[in-house]
Amino acid sequence: MYFLSRYKDYTPLWSDVAALKQTSRQNVVRIIAALVLLAASAVLNVYFIYKLSHRWFTTPLDNYQHLNVHPIVNEAFYSSLAKPAADETAVVTCMYTDSYATAIANLGHSLSRVNSTARRILFYLPEHISDEALCIASATGFTPHPVSRIAPPHNGEGTHARFMDAYSKLNLWTLGDEGVRAVVHLDADTLVVRNFDELFALPFNFGAVPDVYVGSHGFALEFNTGVIFARPSTEVFRDMMAKMQTASYDGIQADQAFLNQYYAAEAVRLPYVYNANLAIKKRKPGMWEDLRNRTRIVHYTLVKPFLAEEDNSGKTVLDMHSLAENVRHRMGEFDGAFDEELQTWLEVWNETYRIYNDALTQCGSIKSRS
Description:
Layout: H1 17-53, H2 75-80, E1 89-95, H3 101-113, E2 119-124, H4 131-137, E3 143-146, E4 182-186, E5 190-192, E6 206-212, E7 219-230, H5 234-244, H6 255-263, E8 268-269, E9 276-277, H7 278-283, H8 285-292, E10 297-299, H9 323-330, H10 339-355, H11 357-364
Parallel strand pairs: 1-2, 1-4, 2-3, 6-8, 9-10
Antiparallel strand pairs: 4-7, 5-10, 6-7
């Protein structure tokens, strides 16, 4: 740059020195201005990244504070309602693979511990489930109910491999033909810790708890279908089957993605106590602490104590006698964040095995289907 050169006083014979110096000065100003803009841009980028990493755009849940100590249910009002007949209500869970049999047995006992009065129905796919696994899963109170597999639309294109059978859950809506007026579906990887009969009195057609993710998605508007309240209707079921093939949605999460699209603006978002997803504890421990004394249902999403694999694939079917060892083996995952919840599941399982020992032992003697 001529302006900064030690030869700036040199006078060439062939040039307009004044014009050259003016041009050089303008170039220097432009370069300095560009450098200032680049520096300012870098500073702003760092600032925005910092703000985003600290949840600049927060929800009240990201900024959770211990404020509301009032109960979830208005007991005075609830007690004034006429309770639905036990045979008109049902708790349903689904089994698509043998590896979930012990989880369902534990879920069944957890329902007994909280004096759940509803019928218990176990949806299962006969072509996928062994006699031994079905015996184990139904040993604690679930009544086996074979259902037809509902295949994912578009031959499963875009559906996660673990959820290829999950659309079969939609058979829930066929229970209206059997006199069921209200149903609560619980995923097999849930554990009931308090009675939730108040859900059966809801005046709505569908309700579920908003989903939670550990990553950047955080507290979502979309609901999680691990716990569902629904009023069965064959008419609704047929409508679902008709529209599933043409509805536009990202099908990677199978039935959950479809139901979020199907109910969309009509779904009632239930409080987190009805689906205490372990992701809440990892994302907002303070919120989890406040929920724990009111939680009805714990959902073992991130660590499943009855599965051997850290990816929760369920490829290995664990023997009943190895569950305690497996739970201890899985403690420590996610830096031990869920060790207490894993211990709770194991304590209920130990109780389940002690109370239903004869029935479970008999199941173990059944030869699996070839």
